[in-house]
Design brief:
Length: 398
């Protein structure tokens, strides 16, 4: 325990680490403030206008379609065709009334009523699709409609007020995992987090600290583990404190929101794009889950840096290798031939939001559990290898 406290204090008092933490803090504050406080309110207002314009456009399109079908009925003598056209006109008239009602409620900014009308529109559209001839394109559309209907029904069942934009939520509980978590799990911040622990370990080898540890009869393998864990804990504590501070700022500006509001999570596929797949988890649980998961990401990065350090013993080389792995993978991860191999690549598990979205290309609803086990297992393997190497390295006598 004394060694842990000593290494933890060394890590915190290290000037390089303090500069990096300051840099990360400044980047997080400015990026988060700009994307959340400045843009969100402006985007919310424009989004209301966009919703109204979309409803008006759909209403006009339906009016033209109804007129076209009515003209077709007058010129047709086929009773089956006339019957099908009358059925289509019936559905389109119902949708037209609902779209017109949406325009009216948006003028009064009644968001709850707008989404209730949207649910009715989705139900009618889904019913019409199911009655039509099966098509490959309708299968995906029907799935999306079902998920949207379930999401709206879930918010109503929990007696909550709707966010203006489910995908870009304003209140603190929803905004935290939609704005702040992607920042922390981005390639840039992953590299900065990894470099703090890795460079500290490598710098110790550059300064020949192992000679003094052996002279003091300190187990080198144990000391390496303590160094990695102390750096991981210190970085994670900063992450938790930064998360709490961000949450308080957003709660003060935009309101706390509801812990129980359903998260808007989906699976991003190269071919189909975004599909809403996980609506069962609430924003509060997701926020805590993401912060908890990032600990295992930090532990993996620290152990990987330690493994590289015992071989190269140069801090800048360690930083370069980790940067190349993380940033390089972020640029090529969506290449089609690489997608089938993503579940086997550790860097694919750095984003908790992607895993909480139950991606089918990974392990579905068990993706988060698989990510925790996989990263932890690799961390243990890396530390065992690093410990074995450092324990068996021979020191040159002076």
């Amino acid at each position: 325990m004394k060694i842990f406290k000593f290494e933890l204090k060394r890590f915190i008092l290290n000037k390089r680490n303090r500069y990096l933490l300051t840099l990360i803090s400044v980047l997080v504050v400015f990026y988060a403030a700009y994307s959340t406080i400045s843009l969100l309110n402006l985007f919310s207002r424009s989004y209301l206008t966009e919703l109204s314009q979309t409803a008006q456009s759909n209403e006009k399109s339906l009016t033209d379609s109804i007129k076209s079908f009515q003209d077709s009925i007058q010129s047709s003598k086929n009773q089956s065709e006339i019957s099908n056209n009358n059925t289509s006109i019936y559905y389109m008239n119902k949708l037209k009334i609902l779209y017109h009602s949406q325009v009216q409620v948006l003028e009064t900014k009644n968001i709850n009523r707008y989404y209730d009308l949207q649910k009715q529109i989705d139900i009618i559209t889904l019913k019409e699709n199911q009655n039509s001839m099966p098509q490959s394109g309708l299968i995906q559309q029907n799935f999306e409609l079902k998920q949207d209907i379930k999401y709206i029904q879930l918010v109503q069942k929990r007696h909550l007020d709707f966010e203006i934009m489910p995908s870009v939520q304003a209140h603190a509980f929803g905004n935290f995992q939609q704005q702040f978590v992607p920042i922390l799990s981005s390639a840039l911040f992953i590299v900065l987090f990894a470099s703090m622990v890795s460079i500290t370990v490598a710098s110790g080898y550059e300064a020949n600290e192992n000679r003094w540890y052996r002279f003091a009869d300190i187990d080198l393998k144990k000391n390496l583990i303590v160094k990695v864990f102390a750096g991981t804990v210190a970085t994670y504590v900063w992450l938790v404190v930064a998360s709490i501070a961000y949450f308080i700022v957003i709660a003060t500006v935009n309101g706390v929101g509801s812990w129980n509001y359903p998260a808007y999570l989906g699976d991003v596929n190269v071919t189909t794009g975004f599909m809403l797949t996980n609506i069962s988890i609430s924003n509060g649980i997701l926020d805590i889950g993401c912060v908890f998961y990032l600990f295992f990401v930090l532990l993996f990065l620290a152990s990987l840096g330690a493994l590289i350090s015992v071989f190269v013993k140069r801090s800048m080389v360690v930083f370069g290798v980790i940067s190349l792995l993380v940033l390089g993978y972020s640029m090529i991860e969506n290449i089609s031939w690489l997608v089938p191999f993503q579940p086997y690549i550790p860097m694919s598990y750095f984003s908790p939001l992607k895993l909480f979205g139950n991606p089918t290309s990974f392990a579905g609803k068990y993706s988060v559990l698989v990510g925790v086990v996989y990263l932890t297992l690799l961390s243990v393997i890396f530390m065992l290898i690093a410990g074995f190497v450092i324990k068996n390295q021979r020191m040159r006598k002076l």
